[in-house]
Specification:
This protein has five helices and ten strands. It is of the alpha/beta class. It has one domain. The strands form two sheets. Strands 1-2-5-6-7-8-9-10 form an eight-stranded mixed beta sheet, covered by helices on one side. A two-stranded antiparallel sheet has the order 3-4.
């Protein structure tokens, strides 16, 4: 478990090692595995140091599997069993999980879990929000638009009014490490931001949007209520 520069959490915890089978073209972890020729085999690795650290640190927000899709079919269910066992044994921490495959969620979420879906705005991935909101009920459900690639403003995208009672948080960020060719437009950011404001959904703008977004720069966290 490591301290992180990710603004919306305190630590990252990656108990599943190996090359993520989703294969997103922009994935920084995938590039690291290829560049340094790390072992790509998917395996479970939970250290005694991680467990002890969770027991002694102050209550924290912990991002689980920041480099792996936990709910990919290639990830054996027993690995998730071990992860959620540890989550349940550490109720004073908030464990944040992001997935691109909410349709594969195979269990209820512990009370100390925030569950979100990643949406880039391309390839119809906004369907993930529907799966999230119609599925299991964690304490917090959220959407992470990072990296925000597709121009939702030109697609007539209108999802928050449909799920306003189910979502508790929205994160937005741009793609880093590829220059500015994939930067979201003002209209794209504004569309999502305004829908969140209209729906009363807290918004967290990542620091990498500074200079792109001309509106109020907010970094809000959700109220911890189950929907």
């Amino acid at each position: 478990m490591n301290k992180t520069k990710i603004e919306w959490c305190d630590f990252t915890w990656n108990p599943i090692k190996g090359l993520c089978p989703v294969g997103c073209w922009y994935c920084y972890a995938r590039k690291m595995y290829k560049r340094f020729k790390w072992d790509e085999k998917i395996d479970f690795l939970i250290s005694e140091k991680d467990v002890i650290q969770m027991m002694i640190i102050e209550p924290a927000r912990i991002f689980v599997c920041s480099t792996m899709e936990m709910f990919h079919p290639n990830i054996p269910s027993h690995l998730r069993d071990s992860i959620f066992y540890i989550i349940e044994k550490n109720p004073r921490h908030t464990f944040i999980i992001l997935t691109k495959m909410p349709e594969n969620i195979d269990r209820p979420m512990p009370d100390n879990t925030w569950l979100g879906v990643s949406v880039t705005g391309v390839d119809g991935d906004d369907d993930r929000i529907r799966f999230l909101c119609n599925g299991t009920k964690p304490r917090v459900k959220f959407v992470s638009f990072e990296p925000l690639l597709g121009d939702l403003a030109t697609k007539g995208w209108n999802v928050f009014p449909d799920y306003v009672d189910a979502l508790s948080w929205c994160i937005m960020g741009r793609l880093t490490g590829h220059g500015h060719v994939h930067d979201p437009t003002q209209a794209n950011i504004k569309r999502i931001y305004q829908e969140c404001r209209n729906a009363g959904i807290p918004v967290f703008l990542k620091d990498n949007l500074r200079g792109l977004w001309k509106g109020p720069f907010v970094q809000e966290f959700p109220m911890e209520t189950c929907t």
